[in-house]
Each structure stands twice: as C-alpha cells, then as structure tokens.
Amino acid sequence: MRPKVSASLRDSLVAEMSNLRAFAVSLCGDKERADDLVQETLFKAWNHLDSFREGTNLKAWLFTILRNTYFSERRKRRREVEDADGSYAARLSTHPEQYGHMDMQDFRNVLTRLPADQREALILVGAAGFSYEEAADICGCAVGTIKSRVNRARNRLADMLGLSESDVAPEDSPTAPIGIPRTA
Amino acid sequence: MQANPADRGLSVDEQAKKKDRRPKTPGASKIMDQSAEAQGKLQHNAAPETNMEDGLTLNLQAHIGRHVRALFDEVAREPIPDRLLQLLKDLERSGDK
C-alpha cells in the first residue's frame, strides 16, 4: 500500500525537482542520464515517504537519495568498464593554454574532469546552498572531508584553467582604475 | 593597469598633489575619490588575501564560486521535462488507489 501524500509535501517535491535536476546534471554531465536519475530518485522517494519525517530537510533527503543512486550505479558500471573516467581524464590531460578569461564552456569542461567526490562537494556547498554539515550528511562523510574536497576542487579548477590572481578582477572594481597618473 | 611604482611610497597627500596637476573640471573631486579607492584596491591586489587552508586568494575563490553557481542555475532554470511531471502524476494516481 502506498502512503497518501499530503498536498504540501507533493508541492515541495515538485519545487525541489529543478534543483535535483541541476545536481544530477552536475554529477553525471549528461542531461538524459540526469533525468533518469531524477526519475529514479522521485520513484524511490515516493515509495519511502513513510521514512521521511515531514518538517525535516526534504531537499537534503532527496539529494541523498539521488547521489546514492548515482554512485551505486557508477560503481556497478565501473566494474564493467574499467576506469572509464580515468581514461577520459587522461585523454584530456593537456593543460589549456593560459586563458585571458574563461568562458562558461571552458568551465563546464574542467568541472567534468574533477574527481566525482570533489565535484559533488563543490556543487553541494557552492551551488546547491547546503552547509558543510548538511553536505557531510548527504555524502555520509565527515565535515572535514567535505571541506578538504571543496578546497581540492577549487585548487584543481584554478590549476586546470591556468587561473591566477591577475585574471580575476574583484567583482566591483573597474578593470582600469580611473584617475591614477601614469607618469610622474 | 599598474600604478606607477614610484607612486607606491607616496603618502595620500603627495598623491593628491600629483593629481592636482590635472585640469580642474566639474566632478574632479569625484574622480579623485574614485582614484583613491582604486589605489586602495590596487594595493589589495598586490597582496591579495589568501585563505591559507585553501591556498587560493579570496578573489579566485569567489570567481570560481560564481561560475559553479551559474552552471547550476542554468540547469535549474530549465523547465521540468514532461516525463518527470508525468511520473509524478502516475505516482499520485497509484497512491489514490
């Protein structure tokens, strides 16, 4: 017998679907597969709604189901195709030339080359709006592990993009400072 | 754009005097305010704040953060595919039985 789902819980589920999709795409880098993941997540969530306590963090609960689904499928797949991600990364291991600035496509490319656990931590904390503590709960690891994954992810991105301080102007400052005399 | 290194050691007053050589125009004081501000930022850039644990400057961290969020939001703003909405309807129907 399926639990009767309250209208408010259903609405919250729908409201989180956009975020779930975005998370799924960032994990697997493929929209078709991401939608499969969301579909599976919804299905599982629906059938286990009795184990969810209303009023607690639905978003974190859904994200947990999705990432567990993703990583367990990935483990199965990796047994079949040996280190698919590793060989993919190796093919692309040439450093991009120094970019004057990076566009979103560059960024999307390097993001897919991060190790999955680092990418996951960076997205959860940096984009999906979870605290380090929540992200640790979702991933089933220590808070310190999440922090170090986020740090390594950022460093690796900066490294792969050849980013340095001189490429990055503070958001609110003009590129060319006004009114500073060039000659004495 | 780098400030003239010779200006680095000058006090704010001395720098202001240098700028006084420029023709006075309406709004000149505003320009001077901006330049003082820009000067402060240049000095900030010369020795950017670094998160020691991370090894990246705060500017770089923020830069990467903006891109991560932009990518995520780009997908999150897309309409939900029909097949997912349909699944939800099917699940609800099965729950009503």
Question: How big is the Rg of chain B?
Answer: 27 Å
Shape of chain B: rod-shaped
Number of strands of chain B: 0
CATH superfamily of the largest domain in chain A: RNA polymerase sigma factor, region 2, helix turn helix motif
Most extensive interface? A-B, 58 and 57 residues
Task: Give the rounded overall mean pLDDT of chain B.
Answer: 64
Count of structural domains of chain B: 2
Radius of gyration computed on alpha carbons of chain A: 20 Å
Task: Choose one word for the global shape of chain A.
Answer: globular
Give the DSSP E fraction of chain B (strand runs of 2 or more residues): under 5%
N-to-C order of helices and strands of chain B: HHHHH
Percentage of residues in strands of chain A: under 5%
CATH fold-level label of the largest domain in chain A: Rna Polymerase Sigma Factor, Chain: A
Report how far the terminal alpha carbons of chain A are from each other.
83 Å
Number of helices of chain B: 5
Structure at a glance:
By secondary structure, chain A is mainly alpha-helical. Chain A has helices at about 5-30, 30-45, 60-80, 85-90, 105-110, 115-125, 130-140, 145-160.
Structural account:
The complex is a heterodimer of chains A (184) and B (97). By secondary structure, chain A is mostly helical. Chain A is built from eight helices and no strands. In chain A, helix 1 (7-28) runs parallel beside helix 3 (58-80), helix 6 (116-126) crosses helix 8 and helix 7 packs across helix 8 (143-160). The longest helix of chain A is centred in the middle third of the chain and has 23 residues, at 58-80. The model of chain B is unreliable at 1-47 (pLDDT under 50). Helices cover 67% and strands 0% of the residues of chain B. Chain B contains five helices and no strands. Chain B has 97 residues and is mostly helical. The longest helix of chain B is centred in the middle third of the chain and has 19 residues, at 28-46. The interface between A and B is large, with 58 and 57 residues.
